[in-house]
Amino acid sequence: xxxxxxxxxxxxxxxxxxxxxxxxxxxxxxxxxxxxxxxxxxxxxxxxxxxxxxxxxxxxxxxxxxxxxxxxxxxxxxxxxxxxxxxxxxxxxxxxxxxxxxxxxxxxxxxxxxxxxxxxxxxxxxxxxxxxxxxxxxxxxxxxxxxxxxxxxxxxxxxxxxxxxxxxxxxxxxxxxxxxxxxxxxxxxxxxxxxxxxxxxxxxxxxxxxxxxxxxxxxxxxxxxxxxxx
Length: 230
Ligand code: CDP
Ligand code: CDP
Hints:
Blueprint (H helix, E strand, L loop, with lengths): L5 E5 L6 H12 L2 E4 H14 L7 H10 L2 E6 L2 E6 L2 E2 L7 H11 L2 H15 L4 E5 L2 H5 L5 E6 L2 H11 L8 H17 L12 E4 L5 H22 L2
Parallel strand pairs: 1-6, 1-7, 2-6, 7-8
Antiparallel strand pairs: 3-4, 4-5
One cytidine-5'-diphosphate binds next to α1, α7 and α9.
């Protein structure tokens, strides 16, 4: 049928949200939107301009002026900020350590949520982040809260870093826990499971198993809506 829904996937760092959201979007022929990449883009540009994360007013202004675009690329999503491709600058340890402070700035969050809602306007979007089901798309037809044990999440991230990780597994686990804590404790739109979200613990599950389960939930939600409209 032609019924398309929006799917919100929230959860802590390393839970598998982006990996799985991309697969679900492919399976359903939906558009994938990585909201974390947008907060990382603001953070990377702020650092590049010599701003520190405490300069909230300056960063708020920056977020409001910055044109952020998400484009599909060969190996994942590309991010343009002010017209230039900054994808390669988004996943540095420096950005990792500052992104939660930047994301806690209310003006930054308001601007990003505006852009994200526009992207989801015509439905058929799989959006992953921290506040999608609770704040950005409270009417999403399917909401998933995806998590895994802290050690497993750190290990997944560590494996991605390859032969020159530039950090120990223990330090990475500490950094991730610190980021999760800041994301959960911030005042405006914190990381939180929506009451109507399905909870999915992916510890010990493969990427494909998780993606299949969410795709199936998505198809079921679509069928329910189509049946209700007959
Ligand atoms: O992939 P990973 O979980 O490491 O991070 P991400 O999804 O790229 O998000 C990076 C950071 O952006 C998070 O730790 C949050 O501080 C922030 N973020 C947010 O506040 N709200 C969102 N919807 C998405 C990300
Ligand atoms: O977006 P988020 O921070 O939640 O996680 P991610 O960027 O998708 O990274 C998760 C990493 O764990 C990727 O390297 C995946 O291949 C791996 N992984 C997973 O996502 N899900 C599993 N069930 C098992 C492993």
